[in-house]
Amino acid sequence: MRRASIKDIARIAGVSVATVSYVLNKKEGQRISEDTKKKIFEIAETINYVPNRIARSLQNNRTKLLGLIVADISNDFYSSIARHLEDKAIKLGYTLIIGSSDENAQKFSKLIELFSQQQVDGMIVAPVAGSEDILQKLMDKNYPLVTIDRYLKGVNIPGVLLNNREIAENTTSFLVEKDFEQIIYVGYDTKLPHLLDRQYGFETTIAESGKNIRTKNILVGLENITLEIQTKLEEALGKNPKNTALYFSSNKLAVAGLAYLVQNNVNVPEQVSVLAFDETEAYKLFPAEITYIKQPLEEMADEAVKFLDSQINQYSSKTKKITLSGELIIKKSIK
């Protein structure tokens, strides 16, 4: 059976092929009546017209592909946001291809190169430390690009970000009001600004609280996270911890810390209270429901795809960065 074409629609509607093309591609600036537009769409639906995407991509130099580079696709945060991004992309007619950099600048650069070879129309990326130069080169070429979750200092890239510092300040204030004798911040030894914002938010709030609270920072590298956290928590908590709060700056750190608490029979929240940045299905395996900071994943994905689409199609947009906030979900892990 022959595939229906825009020529068929034009013949049935009694209009030119150009008029059908303008209507179906939703191009602005053409004086076409609403009745004619409605008639064209109805005919297209009746004869089961399906756009030839290959021909369209050759015509407008678009592939309708988007590239997504996340830091770690095995992390619940990134796998969840990738799912939302894919759903949003499909609604706008794009196909999403995904790569995971594993926090490695060299691998990140290779993925950028690979996606460029695939001629993706634009990219959404979670940048890693050391990726400033490759991203700046893309920006210099006016390549459609949006960062998500993260940003890098010294490179002005459009992005959808979380207000990490403000969230950290608010959640730390929540812990300070509980009058813990000791609050331990568990974070990464990193140069990534969004993670440092969480750490600085914690430290600033403690310093400005005026309360006599013992605090400690446990900072771990990206390798051997479980071993490092277990060793450092054992040192920080001692044999019989009391009236202490643990603030984990990511779900990955929280899962490693919770495993230590279970293995060492530390009761939550009787001995140690727990608050974690990000959620994960793994929390459901822990005896106490974990208090966590919920990130607006669907909203982040929606804004990122719309933002990238506006760059690809050169819509007028003055927005350089979109900053969203999270929500503290209080459960039973806080005393």
Total count of strands: 12
Task: Compute the average pLDDT.
Answer: 90
Structural class: alpha/beta
Biggest sheet overview: 6 strands, parallel
* Terminus-to-terminus distance: 69 Å
Strand content: 15-25%
Q: What's the arrangement of strands in the largest beta sheet?
A: 2-1-3-4-5-11
The string of secondary-structure elements, in order, is HHHHEHEHEHEEHEHEHEHEEHEE
- The CATH level-2 architecture of the largest domain is identified as 3-Layer(aba) Sandwich
Considering the protein shown, what is the CATH homologous superfamily of the largest domain?
Answer: Response regulator
Low-confidence stretches: none
Rg over CA atoms, rounded to whole Å, is 25 Å
CATH class of the largest domain: Alpha Beta
What is the molecular shape? elongated
SS element count, helices: 12
The CATH topology of the largest domain corresponds to Rossmann fold
- Please bin the fraction of helical residues: 40-55%
How many domain modules? 3
